[in-house]
């Protein structure tokens, strides 16, 4: 059997036993079988430059010796315990997170995923406030579980109208498609602030469990608010003593290049932060760091069978140590600036690009029909496929699925960034040429 036939056979087997809604990238889906640094090898035998990092979960890179060895060492000792026993590596990791989190008197609880982390934040805040009313942002994504879907502000990711929460969706910092887009940043922020006040006064009881926000929206296409945006929103929330929950599943640990947690850049000290994904570099993990009074509000028993397990904790400790010892936040800032500048230079001559945005190594490239703001979904899919054909893996997102997501591991080099830019320049030129012919 040839490699291509083997890939096709695997895809057929996938479709025979997996859910129909479990979508994959590309018409001819790719299996990843091996990785090293920022490169992966596919089941097709080709090597690719990985600028998506397992949907931002492979945050440091593939097969990093210090992380691999930490996992191997722990696996040789003990695979599993539970929170009914003391777990040394869990306590050590909680101490590291508590020292760095911009949360007063922090307590840390570990779970297994971002969805479970956000569910935990909802459990805490709804219990503490005796309310199931939540304010979320338009364009937000918080997970695939029942409560997190309820607070997700993207129709394409909202599988059901049923909800355990009463959610009011306020304006996000996504200015490009906002009804306030014509305003400058200060006026835009003021308009969103005033609208939040109006929503609270007219659409809620005022007793609100929490306001939840991603500092940079992930699935929403890396929408990045003006610098004063969240400060203005919090000025309204504080009038009602509404807790601020920062969803850092994608933006945490220095990836933005601006701060260790994304919300710090905006000068906010939230009552809770959710985290997951890259903390264990691909091993399943999640958690919440919250103010002690909020974390301790539960009166019923609660444990986590696998949350905080020794394997994930060992991996995460190694990841945070590696980020610190290799100054990867600075690398994210420096190399991210090279990528951002290069993409903006490409945008200046490519009418297919409506906007380049993001921070550090969270960069979104919104594609539109040339000379309009109409989402170019087909062209986005074409760019994704052409990038793969050229040896580069990137992601996509956005409200309409028309935003390319460029998110390499935090160890990415300047040389790799330049290679990716060269590929993207050729890819977008090719896709635009096709679009121009179509018009």
Automatic annotation (TrEMBL):
Alphabetical list of Pfam families matching this protein: Aminotran_3
GO MF entry, a single one: alanine-glyoxylate transaminase activity
InterPro entries xref list: Aminotrans_3, PyrdxlP-dep_Trfase, PyrdxlP-dep_Trfase_major, PyrdxlP-dep_Trfase_small
Keywords: Aminotransferase, Pyridoxal phosphate, Transferase
The keyword Transferase is assigned to this record: yes
Family membership: Belongs to the class-III pyridoxal-phosphate-dependent aminotransferase family.
Protein name: alanine--glyoxylate transaminase
Provenance organism: Mycolicibacterium neoaurum
Protein encoded by which gene: argD_1
């Amino acid at each position: 059997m040839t490699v291509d036939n083997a890939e096709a056979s695997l895809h057929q087997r996938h479709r025979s036993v997996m859910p129909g809604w479990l979508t994959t990238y590309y018409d001819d889906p790719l299996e990843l079988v091996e990785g090293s640094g920022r490169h992966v090898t596919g089941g097709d035998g080709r090597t690719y430059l990985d600028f998506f990092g397992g949907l931002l979960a492979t945050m440091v890179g593939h097969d990093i010796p210090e992380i691999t060895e930490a996992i191997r060492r722990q696996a040789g000792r003990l695979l599993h315990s539970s929170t009914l026993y003391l777990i040394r590596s869990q306590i050590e990791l909680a101490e590291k997170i508590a020292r760095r989190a911009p949360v007063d008197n922090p307590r840390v609880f570990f779970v297994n995923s971002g969805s479970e982390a956000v569910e935990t934040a909802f459990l805490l805040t709804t219990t503490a406030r005796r309310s199931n009313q939540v304010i979320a942002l338009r364009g937000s994504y918080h997970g695939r579980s029942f409560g997190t879907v309820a607070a997700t502000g993207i129709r394409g990711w909202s599988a059901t109208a049923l909800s355990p929460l009463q959610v009011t969706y306020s304006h996000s910092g996504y200015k490009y498609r906002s009804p306030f887009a014509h305003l400058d940043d200060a006026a835009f922020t003021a308009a969103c602030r005033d609208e939040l006040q109006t929503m609270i006064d007219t659409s809620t009881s005022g007793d609100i469990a929490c306001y939840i926000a991603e500092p940079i929206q992930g699935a929403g296409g890396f929408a990045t608010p003006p610098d004063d945006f969240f400060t203005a929103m919090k000025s309204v929330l504080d009038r009602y003593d509404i807790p601020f929950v920062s969803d850092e599943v994608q933006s945490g640990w220095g990836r933005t290049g601006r701060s260790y947690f994304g919300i710090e850049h905006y000068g906010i000290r939230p009552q809770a932060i959710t985290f997951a994904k890259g903390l264990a570099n691909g091993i399943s993990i999640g958690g919440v760091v919250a103010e002690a009074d909020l974390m301790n509000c539960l009166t019923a028993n609660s444990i986590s069978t696998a949350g905080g397990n020794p394997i994930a904790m060992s991996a995460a400790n190694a990841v945070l140590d590696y980020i610190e010892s290799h100054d990867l936040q600075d690398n994210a800032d420096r190399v991210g600036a090279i990528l951002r500048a290069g993409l903006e230079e490409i945008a200046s001559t490519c009418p297919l690009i409506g906007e380049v945005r993001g921070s550090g190594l969270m960069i979104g490239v919104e594609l539109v029909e040339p000379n309009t703001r109409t989402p170019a979904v087909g062209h986005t899919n074409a760019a994704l496929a052409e990038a793969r054909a050229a040896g580069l893996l990137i992601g996509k997102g956005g409200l309409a699925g028309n935003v390319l997501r460029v998110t390499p591991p935090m160890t990415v080099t300047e040389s790799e960034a330049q290679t990716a830019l060269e590929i993207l320049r050729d890819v977008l030129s090719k896709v635009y040429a096709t679009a121009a012919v179509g018009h």
